[in-house]
Specification:
This protein is of the alpha/beta class. It has a domain at 75-285: Vaccinia Virus protein VP39 (Rossmann fold), CATH 3.40.50. Helix content is 37%, strand content 19%. The chain is built from 11 helices and 11 strands. The chain has helices at 3-18, 24-37, 74-86, 88-94, 109-121, 148-157, 175-178, 206-213, 229-237, 268-276, 292-303, and strands at 46-50, 56-60, 65-66, 97-103, 126-133, 160-162, 166-172, 187-192, 216-224, 241-244, 255-258. An 8-stranded mixed β-sheet has the order 6-7-5-4-8-9-11-10, sandwiched between helices. A 3-stranded antiparallel β-sheet has the order 1-2-3, with no helix packed on it. Helix 1 packs across helix 2 (24-37) and helix 4 (88-94) runs parallel beside helix 5 (109-121). The longest helix has 16 residues, at 3-18. The radius of gyration is 20 Å and the shape is globular. It binds S-adenosylmethionine (SAM).
Length: 310
Amino acid sequence: MTREEYLQRFLEDYLKKIGLNLDNEGFSIILRELNRFAYNPEEEGVEVVYTSDGSLTLIHRKYGEPYHSQTAGAIRETIWKFIKPSRILEKAKTREVIRILDIGFGLGYNLAIALKHIWEINPHVRVEVFSFEKELLQDVPLLPEPYREIHKWLLDKTPEYEDERLKFKIFLGDARKEIRKIGNFKADAVFHDAFSPYKNPELWTLEFLSLVKERIDEYGYWVSYSSSLAVRKALILLKFKVGSSKELGRKRKGTVASLKANVPPIDEDELRKLVLSPFSIPFRDETLNSEPLEILTDYLLRVYKYLPNR
Ligand SMILES: C[S@@+](CC[C@H](N)C(=O)[O-])C[C@H]1O[C@@H](n2cnc3c(N)ncnc32)[C@H](O)[C@@H]1O
């Protein structure tokens, strides 16, 4: 079956399931958008590619996306979209403990690079990290110097490790379920690094972000490479202050959010879209158990007003 046939069959079944009759025009609009945005449901496996700063990353065939930005460079993306906007290096100077929630451990790049810089600034600070990952890979390309050693060390310590300076655990499985296992944890930084919202919507919904909100310190920062309207709108509905991180090469700005701390402003053009664009409504997953394609289809049906927004 081709991808198009798969998505067509999926859409017919889904509309039956929710009892919605779409006319031909509506059906072809939603199918066209699914073809544009959805992941490749039947693909699997990964391939290795170079990124622009000379580091390697993998492309995940199912998502049709790299784990890190090829145009920005994997290391540069980690530093500019995650580490700097999260302000953990400033906190590392004065704190005894830094807490990180790492959503999408992937190849461990974000975490390895963060640990390297945190301990360079303050070798005594203790770092506590909870990571989430549903697909832990075996043959991970190692980061180049100066991160190679710490990256290798970290990968050797998966899925769980503790000493005086590091408490680290990867929760293996769907983050929507696993995140409920961590109780009394208030993160200084949340590295929200799933694949892009249309491809991996289950980790960008109002409901999942609300679980993340319960686990972030009021002055902590939620950071991501994504500037998706749906995601920013969900954060706003959850009462986060929402701002932009810097543009990087051809990559758009990322997002920085905090419940109480100041965030850099969003420019006027982006603000206008957030208010006016029909795409500026959150992904929804009331049961925290919906299939990703169902979450995307429900979103598209609301964007195109075949379903009321909620
Ligand atoms: C963009 S990659 C993360 C890259 C990673 N932060 C790094 O620095 O190497 C996204 C990751 O999210 C994981 N993921 C996607 N959906 C998930 C889910 N529902 N639960 C847990 N992990 C998920 C994928 O397996 C993938 O490893």
